[in-house]
Design brief:
Structural class: alpha+beta
Number of helices: 9
Bound molecules: adenosine-5'-diphosphate, magnesium ion
Strand order of the largest sheet: 2-1-5-4-3
Strand content: 15-25%
Distance between the termini: 39 Å
Order of helices and strands: HHEEHEEEHHEHEEHEEHHEE
Number of strands: 12
Shape: rod-shaped
Helix content: 40-55%
Length: 420
Amino acid sequence: MKRASIYITLLLLAFTGAMVTSALWTYKLSMQAAMGNLKTAATNMAVNLDFTLNNLGLRRYYFQKLVSSGDWEAVAFLALYNRDSEVLLHSNINLIGLRMKDPHIQRVFATGIPMDHFMTLGTGEKVYVLDYPLHYHREGKLRTEVLRIALHTYPAMGVVRKARFQLTLSLAATGVLWILTFLLIFYIRRSVRMERQLAEKERLALLGEMAAILAHEIRNPIGSIKGFAQLLMEKKEDDSPEREFLQTMVEECIRLEKLVRDLLHYAREERLRLSTFLLKELVEECVKQSEGHREDIKLAIEISDNLTITSDRDKLKQILLNLIQNSQEAMKQEGTLTIRAHEKGDKIVLEIQDQGKGMTPEVRERIFQPFFTTKSQGTGLGMAIVKKLTEQLEGQIHVESSYGQGSVFRLILPKKVNPQ
Ligand code: ADP
Ligand code: MG
């Protein structure tokens, strides 16, 4: 699934790249086409005017009439300048006779070739301007003036506007595609995860049922073996070598009994028996009872004396006993076992922290699986029981652990479990 997501993302990236490049390309081409159109239109007008002015002479109102007649679309203004920057003709007749210094016009006089550029009018509109050298006969002499043709860009830029719209549209479409794809990946991942969890739950339920049946069948024979071994042991002399064998038999039987007890705990479905009690008292009771109480482990209980909880006392005790025992077993050297609790909204957060050997991420992944153990004498059922009982108490359990440094088991329990 992870790999599929990466492929989909890469594909999407490639698609986005192609889409944006093609839209940008279209935009660039349309810009060039628009510029070409403006230039052709302006040059045609210039050639036309060159001819007419040479034939008709400079008539004061000629440009004004041309622009206002509307015969030539898109003309913003027309003007004719002489070398001294004097306005000889203009479509706005008020400007005729004025001097207007303009570096563009000077350059056309200097080079003798037409040049185009954009300029902004007093109205704020940006227009296309062609400055065209015009050769003109006057009083028998050939003079050169500069004809300026300014065109509105709006009509020619229509194609550019379309291209820009297309660019925006394709960007938006790609954005939507990205969002949809990520939503899809998210939902597929979630459903795969949920399916896996469900399968795991079913597997565990089946395992529990089998374990319960097996445990019942085994319990009585173990009891008899242990009983007879003890009986035989009592009959032997103290220094008899067989006594040692019988002792081992009894010890192994005790171990098997623990396994069977754990199995039954794990498999048994018991109704909750709720009561309200002091949490600190229960914790102290568990610590006292936990097997293998050790001198080298310092104990710190940080729970306020009057913190109460309404829950199933026996089940919570089972949970704590298992957690405390694991913590003690994890601490080979001396260290502190801290048990603390605080209220958080309608929950109680209960933490059991040890300074033991901690867990690798691989072990951490598997601790709740029944029969998973890293201990030679372990049953691997402790944490499975803890998980099951915690869920029954409507709580959650989280584990933080770093290898070689210790672990924290965090139980989040409701302050008040709802009666079933
Ligand atoms: P068991 O104690 O019989 O091995 P559990 O189900 O209680 O079975 O624990 C399973 C495994 O989880 C342990 O074998 C151990 O590797 C790991 N584990 C549990 N608690 C701790 C802890 N506090 N520190 C380190 N490892 C732990
Ligand atoms: Mg254990």
